[in-house]
Design brief:
Layout lengths: L1 E3 L8 E7 L11 E16 L2 E15 L6 E15 L6 E3 L1 H10 L33
Antiparallel strand pairs: 1-6, 2-3, 3-4, 4-5
Length: 137
């Protein structure tokens, strides 16, 4: 999401865009975006700085690290980003910072719910859905 800084008027610039999670390289083994990432940005130019207020939204599908079931999580995030600029700078690119902020919010071990019982290590039954009869759980 590259923005020509000379296109930002004194009153600011509002942008709405949808970015592909593939383009942002957001999908992992346990987290996959469903659809696009919606980006709303308000940009303001101040002397040697471009300030951006960014709102992100989207839907992520995660795989529980205990029971391996998938579950959906809504992404809603607000960012305040600042870009120092000089007279030679022509544009700023919001995408690297957007990507970084989203990835920093990824859970290390996604859980479908806090008290997920996981899988029986012997028979593999999902202990959230039933009781195993193998005697190990």
């Amino acid at each position: 999401m590259k923005i020509n800084i000379h296109r930002i008027p004194p009153e600011g610039l509002s942008l709405k865009e949808e970015i592909s999670p593939v383009e942002l390289q957001l999908n992992t083994d346990t987290i996959e975006f469903i659809g696009m990432v919606a980006v709303n940005a308000d940009l303001f130019k101040v002397t040697n700085l471009v300030s951006a207020r960014v709102s992100l939204s989207g839907l992520m599908r995660m795989r529980c690290s205990r029971c391996l079931n998938t579950f959906d999580v809504e992404l809603k995030k607000n960012l305040e980003l600042n870009y120092p600029v000089n007279k030679l700078d022509l544009e700023i690119d919001l995408e690297p910072d957007i990507r970084e902020e989203i990835i920093l919010d990824y859970p290390i071990k996604p859980l479908c719910h806090m008290d997920c019982k996981g899988l029986c290590p012997k028979c593999g039954i999902n202990l959230n859905e039933g009781v195993c009869n193998c005697g190990t759980a």
